[in-house]
Amino acid sequence: MTAALDVKGLTTRFDTRGGSVTAVNNVSFSVDKGRILGIVGESGSGKSVTGFSILGLIDEPGKVVGGSVLIEGTDLRALSPDDMRGMRGRKVSMVFQDPMMTLNPVLRVGDQMAMAVRVHRPMSKPKALEEARRALEIVGIPSPAERLKAYPHQLSGGMRQRVAIAIALLHSPAVIIADEPTTALDVSIQGQILAEVRRLADQTGTAIVWITHDLAVVSSLADDICVMYAGRIVERGTAEQVISAPRHPYTQGLLDSVPAQHEPGKPLPQIPGSTPQLSRLPSGCPFRPRCPRATELCATEPPVDDRDGQIVLCHHPLERP
Ligand SMILES: Nc1ncnc2c1ncn2[C@@H]1O[C@H](COP(=O)(O)OP(=O)(O)O)[C@@H](O)[C@H]1O
Ligand SMILES: [Mg+2]
Q: Considering the entire predicted model, what is its pTM?
């Protein structure tokens, strides 16, 4: 089966006055139809740049310098800018943390959704509005026909984010990339949206990449998980593998600092130190200054260790029985 999204060796660099930084470093993963991949990592690890790189939305001083991005077998990096625009929205779409990146504040929800439909598929406005109504229904918006008449500011934050997800869905894309779309929402609204997203992947077959700094979110939502650190994927596997038997010391550190997994009353362990500046990475493994397992060996490039498809980039991965 051809993967909905297949990313290989994706590498993105920013050449700034302060020097050149590799924000996305040889990133590879694939997502099958109807599956949800979670990308998790601390702020600054390269998650958003990965999403933008996939969509070809990197601007100066950034540049995708290597790798391939295949959507249902089509290499996006080989497309002309016009063909790429044709793919965006239709085959692959993005949901941002701030829904107002997608929504136009001065247009009614229905009008802007109908416009979005008709960009790629000519049809009458009433027909387009009907498609818009159906998309709102799919993301669990109550009385969708009423909401079509609303302006974005008349909706709650959670509703606006659902509308942004509905817009991403309008053309039944093969792939949706969602960049921290529920981070600003309260926990119960977030839970409702995650449940809708799961249903959506199951029912429509859309492959979803869900980017978040919150391991608790991906552990409840994702089928597969990539853990990012300093632009690299340091661990990748099924959600089951990564959550219940992490092998990279960084993943273990992230898991230890999730409140829900922690014994009440004891102080919450935190990974010592802070996320490194990409312009000042140590040689070898970028995590080594913070790693409890680091040795001299870690000053050299960490090898790829693959066990049953659970892949870690580490000299001293945790051993599992
Ligand atoms: N416009 C830019 N100019 C220079 N460097 C950038 C730019 N955008 C991102 N970066 C670099 O890429 C790193 C990763 O950014 P980002 O993908 O936004 O992190 P995340 O989404 O994981 O919080 C940043 O820490 C920064 O070093
Ligand atoms: Mg980000």
A: 0.94
Burial class (CB in 10 A: 0-12, 13-18, 19+), 264: exposed
Reduce the secondary structure of 263-299 to three states and give it as a string: CCCCCCCCCCCCCCCHHHCCCCCCCHHHCCCCCHHHH
Q: What pLDDT, on the 0 to 100 scale, is given for residue 150?
A: 97
99-110 pLDDT, tens digit per residue, is 999 999 999 999
What's domain 1-33+41-79+212-262+269-321's superfamily in CATH?
P-loop containing nucleotide triphosphate hydrolases (3.40.50.300)
- Ligand 1 mutation target, pool 14, 24, 40, 218, most atoms within 8 A of CB: 14
Best of 48, 234, 250 for a ligand 1 pocket test (most atoms within 8 Å of beta carbon):
48
List, for the chain, all residue ranges whose pLDDT scores fall below the cut of 70: 260-264, 321
Residues 6+ apart with CB under 8 A from 87: 71, 74, 76, 79
Nearest CA to ligand 1 atom 6: 14
pLDDT of residue 263: 66
